[in-house]
Write a structure and sequence with these properties.
With 375 residues, the protein is an alpha/beta fold. The protein is 39% helix and 19% strand. It contains 14 helices and 16 strands.
Length: 375
């Protein structure tokens, strides 16, 4: 694992993570390509927007088209046409998001009822490692137990215990050539359990460490307070990953607390509801106020939507359910968060991140309050 920190500004860090398929400049926002594609976008478009790395979902790719199929076709990079770094999650988040489909969760693993055909599928640490080996991702996440924020302390304690046991089983499991493996600390916002989980996970020789089990129902204040003290407990010389944040305000806040990598479906999901992320706040293009608005979505943006089309035209496409409208909004929203992240990195490099963050948050203050969006 090669991760170098090139600049710091208080807790904020600018670094570079080297992978088998290229470098990831951090802070890094990872667009989510759950099923091997960022919805509606060509890989070259995603790259042109400024993305170094994308995220793909182990659970879904295991079922469709199947990890063996992907392996036979040259691995996920060849299969999807994305030649840069790919991070694959483990299926642990589905313990939270698809908890109604869990048939069994025990010390050995978790059994899901497939969302595709209802059949049972067993996920174990060793099995998940093998799926990710076949997929050939650059960064493979360990299987963990992610619970809702409102879970009882006894359930959180069990989740921490099992997550550690699974991490010990997976840390040395066979992996693809050059594949990095990250461990995940759980514990929600429970200080004692979170500290215990971090101690146990960071004692294992992973290539990076993640804060999981946040942005799952707790308040933003609780989440950020936890990151404030938890992120510095992760090893200084390894990448730190916050799993599941993508709103502009949240991105700035976790960077300021020492987080290097983060992901979320929010930019593209928001686009599919007809809304744009801008420096004026969030714009609902279905609003009649934009019916004859000749301005671009954002005057500072250089995405394909903003350099060529008006708000009025994008609104027309959205209200008429034209596919181009949702594509343009996806391109714009991803460019907005990727550019914001790049600006944050530049501010860290010139030792002015705090003032950049404060000015950016003030400009974004007109945006409707939005809970962080896990993937």
């Amino acid at each position: 694992m090669s991760f170098r920190i090139e600049a710091t500004d208080s807790a904020a860090r600018a670094g570079v993570l080297a992978t088998a398929h290229g470098e990831i400049r951090t802070p890094a926002f990872m667009p989510v390509g759950t099923k091997g594609t960022v919805k509606s976008l060509h890989p070259d478009e995603v790259r042109a927007l400024g993305a170094d790395v994308v995220l793909a979902n182990t659970y879904h790719l295991h079922f469709r088209p199947g990890d063996r199929v992907v392996e036979e076709l040259g691995g996920l990079h060849a299969f999807s046409g994305w030649d840069g770094p790919i991070l694959t999650d483990s299926g642990g988040f589905q313990v939270f998001s698809l908890r109604d489909t869990i048939a069994a969760l025990d010390d050995d693993g978790v059994t899901f009822r497939s969302v595709y055909d209802g059949s049972d599928a067993r996920f174990t640490p060793e099995g998940v490692a093998e799926v990710q080996r076949r997929l050939g991702s650059d960064v493979a996440m360990c299987l963990d137990v992610c619970l809702p924020a409102a879970a009882q302390a006894s359930d959180l304690e069990r989740a921490v215990r099992i997550t550690t046991e699974w991490a010990r089983r997976q840390v040395d499991a066979p992996r693809a050539a050059g594949q990095l493996r990250f461990g995940i600390a759980q514990g929600a916002t429970h200080a004692e359990l979170r500290r215990r989980s971090i101690d146990e996970i960071t004692a294992l020789p992973f290539d990076g460490y993640a804060l999981g089990g946040l942005a799952v129902g707790e308040s933003k204040e609780q989440m950020l307070d936890c990151v404030e003290w938890a992120a510095p407990l992760l090893p200084q010389r390894y990448p730190r990953y916050f799993m599941g944040i993508g709103d502009p305000e949240g991105i700035l806040e976790v960077i300021s607390r020492g987080v290097d990598m983060f992901d979320c479906v929010l930019p593209t999901r928001t686009a599919r509801t007809g809304s744009a992320l801008t420096w004026e706040g969030r714009l609902n293009l279905r609003n009649a106020a934009y019916r004859a608005d000749s301005r671009p979505l954002d005057a500072e943006c250089d995405c394909p939507a903003c350099v060529r089309f008006s708000r009025a035209y994008v609104r027309h496409l959205v209200t008429q359910r034209e596919m181009l409208g949702l594509r343009l909004l996806s391109l714009h929203n991803l460019r907005f968060v990727l550019d914001l992240t790049a600006r944050a990195r530049a501010a860290i490099e010139r030792s002015s991140f705090a003032s950049f963050r404060d000015e950016a948050l003030a400009r974004l203050a007109g945006s409707p309050e939005e809970e962080p969006c896990n993937s």
